[in-house]
Amino acid sequence: MLLTELLGIPGLGLTRLLPPGPRDRRVTGVYTTDLPDPGRYLDGGELVLTSTTWYREPGDADVFVAALASAGAAALVAGSAAVGELPAALIDACERNGLPLLSVGDDVSYAALTETVLAVLAGPVGRSPGAGLHRGLVASMASGAGAEGLVEVLARSTGVHCAVLSATGRPTAGAVPEVSDRHLGRCLRAAFAAGAFPSVQPMPGGGHLTFLPVQSPVAHRPPAGYLAAAGDHRDWAPGIADAAAEVCALLALDGVARQERRRIEERLLRESVELLRAGRTEAAAGRLRSLGLDLGSPLAVAHVVTSGRPYGGELAAVILDEVHERIPGCSAPFTTADGHLLFVPATGGGDGPGLAALLTEAAGRLEPFLAHGWAAIGMSDPATGPSGLRRALEEAVHTQRVARRSGGTVRLAGTEAISSHLMLLAAVPDEVRQMYRERLIGVLERYDAEHHTELVATVRAFLDASGSWQRCAEQLHVHVNTLRYRLQRVEQLTGHGLATLHDRVDFVLALGIR
Q1: Bridge partners (DSSP) listed for residue 248
Q2: Each residue of 370-392: pLDDT tens digit?
Q3: What pLDDT, on a 0 to 100 scale, did the predictor assign at position 23?
Q4: What is the pLDDT of residue 388?
Q5: 401 and 452 co-located in one domain
Q6: pLDDT tens digit string along 135-155?
């Protein structure tokens, strides 16, 4: 139990003497002592009770409090019946060591206080589930009430409120009282980073949330969602943790059923793409219409590729699943040899966020999983008819390749990138790009490192100044003659000057290669 929760229990007679610290303390037991140095008898987490008879001089307080703090005691409860009043040195020592200090009235028996605290620690937090909870959960699922019905049954039976979150952390059902969606997302990101579930995360202002995973129906993907439950599962009454796990299992079972229904749709989508690319547009159109896609209305294509540990490319499907759930009329996400794709109605977002914003938001929530990788997102312009959709598919593939060549964790490009030189660079084989860059930029980078010069920065500034010697020199805060000397050195090292527009284009392209 948390110290703040213990202080809120009426009848204990405890008063906090020092202001609360930056974090709450967990109380796991009670220990009464008047030893001057009791540290070796503590395991951590104890509420230590003392009558302060060990105190003789200010130095005694330093020894006593340091022993408690180093042993990890949760708090000190000091009585003053034997000494008249609490020594100021004791209060100072607790403040220096960050140990919560409480006082108790002279009329409170330590034996009674210990018995009450232990009874509270032993008592359940929340109600033990009744025998009918399992039947209620299954009945709720069978009735089609879905996730909302499951968390409602759990809260009604146990008093533990929960929220269901998507694979990216977006709340989809239920709620935890007084916990905002922003706090839910922040705590789940901390759980992502910790990398183990169940995960207990502290809430701003006190309290905890327990996050439990919902198993994905697809192998090698992250959890299909999460259950965020109020409190620390270690403090729950017997049976509540099992009930919460059952809710997660039922949510996972529902995910398996939905995945089975989608397998046929995904196969038809892959076949449609193959037919479009082969020029068999009418056959492709028939399959797409059977899936409910209106080819007479504009459709855009989103193409996502991800990398990183531990889930790698499967995170792309999670990102597109999020868009599929939020924009009506989307196709199911599906995979091809190029990556993960999604057909999206151009007007499906309504007044909500656009496609680019939704893709970026979903990928951003997964950044803890992308810590050693990236998400490259390409989007096409909306198109109508089979031939237009074929063009949109190619646009999405090419813009994704351009996005992949940019920097950052979440990389996105639209069709405006097709008119950029980055599009041409993306179409060139990696080894050719790297040889080109090495010849113009790599040699300058090594020279800069060896001689502590700034040739690469000078070239970049000169190009940004459109070849203006005066403007570039002013930007670099150097004399024009110094600028001329640097660019002469660039020409000597690379064999390429910057005198003409043709020469400058070579360097612009090379600087665009990572």
Answers
A1: none
A2: 777 899 999 988 888 888 888 88
A3: 72
A4: 86
A5: no
A6: 788 787 777 788 888 988 888
Q: Per the structure, how many domains does the chain have?
A: 4
In a domain, 315, yes or no: yes
CATH number for position 500: 1.10.10.2840
Closest by Cα among 218, 220, 168, 221 to 192: 168
Torsion angle (degrees, nearest 10) of CA 214, 217, 219, 224: -40
Instruction: For residue 118, give the 3-state DSSP assignment.
Output: helix
Distance separating alpha carbons of residues 369 and 307, to the nearest angstrom: 9
Token representation of residue 441: 């930029």
Phi, psi of 200 (to 5 degrees): -105, 125
Within-domain flag for 425: no
The range of the structural domain enclosing residue 451 comes to 430-511
Mean pLDDT of the chain: 83
Do you find a cis peptide bond into 100, omega within 30 degrees of 0?
no
Enumerate the H helices of 405-479 as residue ranges: 421-427, 430-437, 443-451, 455-464, 469-476
* Strand partners for 101: 76
Evaluate if residue 219 carries a pLDDT over 80. Answer: no
Burial of residue 177, with CB atoms counted within 10 A of its CB: 0-12 exposed, 13-18 middle, 19 or more buried: exposed
Nearest to 506 by CA among 463, 464, 472: 463
Q: Residue 63: which H helix or E strand, with range?
A: helix 58-71
3-class DSSP string for 171-212: EEEECCCCCCHHHHHHHHHHHHHHCCCCEEEECCCCCEEEEE
Burial 483-501 (b: 16+ CB within 10 A, else e): beebbebbeeebebebeee
**How does residue 348 score in pLDDT terms, banded at 50, 70 and 90?**
very low
Cα 215 from Cα 325, distance rounded (Å): 18
Phi, psi of 327 (to 5 degrees): -115, 115
Sign of CA dihedral 490, 492, 494, 499: positive
Between 29 and 243, the higher pLDDT residue: 243
d(Cα 338, Cα 281) in Å, to the nearest integer?
Answer: 20
Q: Is the pTM of this model over 0.70?
A: no
Q: Are 306 and 376 in contact (CB under 8 A)?
A: yes
Average pLDDT over residues 426-448: 78
Q: Which residues contact 3 (CB under 8 A, 6 or more apart)?
A: 24, 25, 26, 27, 47, 74, 75, 100
* pLDDT above 80 for 308: no
Cα separation, 183 vs 175, in Å, equals: 12
Whether residue 98 sits in one domain with residue 181: no
